[in-house]
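Ligand: uridine 5'-triphosphate. Inputs:
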Amino acid sequence: MEYCDAQRLLEEHGQEQLLQYYDELDEAEKKQLLADIAKINFNIVESKSPHETKIRGHICPVEAVSMDVIAKRRDEFYEAGKKAIVEGKVAAVLLAGGQGSRLGFHKPKGMYNMGLTKNLSIFELQFRNILKVAHETAYFHIFIMTSRQNHDETVEYFRSVNFFGYPEEKIHFYIQDVSPACGYDYKVFLDTKCHVALSPNGNGGWYSSLIRNGLGDVVHGNGIEWINVYAVDNVLQKICDPVFIGATILKGVKCGAKVVKKAYAGEKVGVLCLENDKPAIIEYYEMPENLKSLTDENGELVYRWGVILNYLFDVEILDDTIRARLPYHAAEKAIAHMENGERVTPSKPCGYKFETLVVDMVKRMGSCLAYEVDREKEFAPVKNATGLDSVESARELLIKNGVEL
Ligand code: UTP
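Predicted complex:
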C-alpha cells in the first residue's frame, strides 16, 4: 500500500491518527506501518459492538447428562470414544493465542510454572493428561493455535521439552488472525510508531485460521471427523476424554460441551441454555439478573450449566458454517499503545479489543450435548495471579487431585 492510499483510506474511516509519526520513520518502518494499515478490517471497529446492546432470543434452560448417568453408562461411552480415537477420527485444538493480560505474565500462558518445588508448566500438566489418553487409545493430531506475539516462543518451548515425548509429526502449530485494538473513542491505537495495535481476534476464529493456515489437508486428509477444542488456562483440562467423546457420538448430536454446576448465581462463566429452542451459550454479562439467580423447587439454579471451554465439534458442520461470520465482541482490556510520542503500558483497561468467541459457534452446530463434569476434578482456571480463578486456587485444586507441585 502507498502512503497516499493509506491516507485516503484512513480519512474515509476517521483514523488519520495512525499516520501521526509517519514523518519520523525510516523507510523500512514506513513500509511496516503501511503494511499494518492494509491489514485493518475497519468494519470490526465500526460495528462498535459493546455487549450491552446485544439482543438475544427466547431463553430456556437446557438438560444436561448428569454425572450419575455418565457413571452408569461409562463403559459404553468409553468404548465408543476410544473406537473413534483409534480410528483416527478425533483431533484436538489447543487455544493458546490469548494474551493472558489478567495474569500479567509476559510469556505464553501455557509456559506459566505451576510448580512449587519444581518446574511444572501448564503445557506439561495438560500434556500429561493427553499422554494418558493417547497411551490407552492412540496418538491423535493436536493443533496448537498461537498468536503472532507468542508463536515463536511457544514453538521454541515445545522443541526444548521434546514435545513432552508426543510424536512431533502429530503436533501442528498455527497463528491466529488479528483485529485492531482501539481506545474508548474507537480510534485505533498504534502499538509503536510503526506498528498498528493488532491483537489476536479472539478464540472464535480457531477453525477459519486453521484452514487459512493450510491445515485443512491434515483434517480432511486424515479423515478427522471430530475436533476437541480446549483452553490453555484450565490446568485440570481433560483432553480427548474418550467418555465425553463417546457420549456425544452416541447421542447423535453435532457438538458436545463439558459443563459444571455454577458455584453461585453471579459466577462469571457462560451458561449453556436453549435460545429459540437451539443450544446456545449466554455469556455472564448477557444473562439478565433475574434469570441468573432463578432457582427451581429444589433450590438449584435453573440456569446452572456453566461451560469450561472444552467442546467437541463435528467437522462437517464446521466446514458448512465456516463462511458465516461470527459476531465480534468488544472486550475492555489494558492495551499498550502510543500516547504523546511515548509507549504506555496501562495496568487497567483503556479501550477495546475485538474478539469472536468460540461460544458463538455452539449455536451454529444446531444440537449440543451438555455433559456434566466434576469441577473439583476438571475445572481449575488460571485467569488471575491471585484471588478468584487464580494461580493460587488452581494450585490448591491440583494438590487435591494428587498432583505433586
Ligand atoms: P481468555 O478469554 O481468558 O483470554 O481466553 P486471554 O487473552 O487468555 O486472557 P485475558 O482475558 O487477556 O486475561 C480463553 C482461552 O481462549 C484462548 C486463550 O489462550 C485461552 O485458552 N484465546 C483467547 C485464544 O486462543 N485467542 C484469543 O484471541 C483469545
